[in-house]
Amino acid sequence: METAQPLKGKIALVAGATRGAGRAMAVELGRAGATVYATGRTTRDHVSEVGRSTETIEETAELVDAAAGAEGRGIAVPTDHLEPEQVRALVTRIDREQGRLDILVNDLWGGDTHLDMGSREQPKMWEMDLDKGLRVMRLGIESHIVTSHCALPLLTRNPGGLLVEVTDGTEEYNRATYRKPFFYDLAKTTPIRMAYGLGEELREFGCTAVCLTPGWLRSEAMLDSAFHVTEENWRDACEQAPHFAISESPTYIGRALAALAADPEVARWNGQSLSSGGLAREYGFTDSDGSAPDAWRYIAEVEQAGKPADVTGYR
């Protein structure tokens, strides 16, 4: 008989759970019964360089609690994952309070504020502000390395641990597409290789590493800053960007992660690059509206092929 909360008793750390995919992944892990440590830099008393005060890690923890019912629990821990001492203190706390770590999610980012992603004409690497570019590298790569270095000794204490690197784009798509500008490309292709390499190292401990990407994500910032819409009327944005019709809510990747974490044969994915749409076909979950968008297949076969926007057969 299938358990309503298959992750009951599991301990998860979602690093970068303030908003967007990270928040949704924390919530869906909690809904599945896990105790979730939600970390980030924006709290009710402090706003990070991302500059959005409307989402906080405390709110994420409360959403986890609301979704989890009696089993799971959300625990907010303010953490700058570029500060090793803060991350070590976080892991020490998890060990002291729980004695184990079963799921580690590296969803750390925050680099958009240093890039002009909305510009059609992106500058060449040597034309970009070097300090901003290197900051993007720290936020999108170094933070993941610091977190894994500190947390994997606890994760590997027990077989069955799962490390999830979160990025933008599948290995297949990013290999064939320059995700300009230069520093964004590096930040979003590197986690794919991280998952592959760490998968090799984790194998002997009976643990698994994967890289997971959403499709075109309807994050809070995407909705209200890029398109000035809400989740309720997001389709209005398709007038500006017709291919936005393939977009997905953060809940979709949250459900993808929960399905992975509950799979007793998750090791079959070790080292691989996975997507929310691809895993929906495998595990049978849907987005919050009941659809199952397959964004990366759509982008390759429709958008990049220059065809008119038409999501028929893709969601």
Automatic annotation (TrEMBL):
Stored InterPro entries: NAD(P)-bd_dom_sf, SDR_fam
Domain of life (superkingdom): Bacteria
Signal peptide: none
Pfam families: adh_short
Protein name per the record: Short-chain dehydrogenase
